[in-house]
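Q: Convert this sequence to structure tokens.
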Amino acid sequence: MDTPGALISVVIPCYNQGRYVTDAVRSAVSRSHRVEVIVVDDGSTDDTPAAVAGCARAKYIRQPNRGLAAARNRGLHAATGEFIIFLDADDRLVPGGIDAGARALVTHPD
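A:
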């Protein structure tokens, strides 16, 4: 499998983490791959919708609060990438992390 230019989906489930989610979205960058960022708002009551609205590159999905697993599954269903990364809203990907992960998967497909 050749991955340069492959689409990588980053699914970010979020519940009342509006103060963090923007940084999580900004950390989902790649030099070698296209990145699709999907934020699944699991019924937040804070400023999550406004925070994500400021992230032009993020696809925003809102659902009633159903818990982390349901939010991840909703994001997985919406994802169109060849690879999927689940990222919590209060975490960040390290610079180059997406590229290193894709390279490792291709180098060691087993």
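The mean pLDDT is 94.
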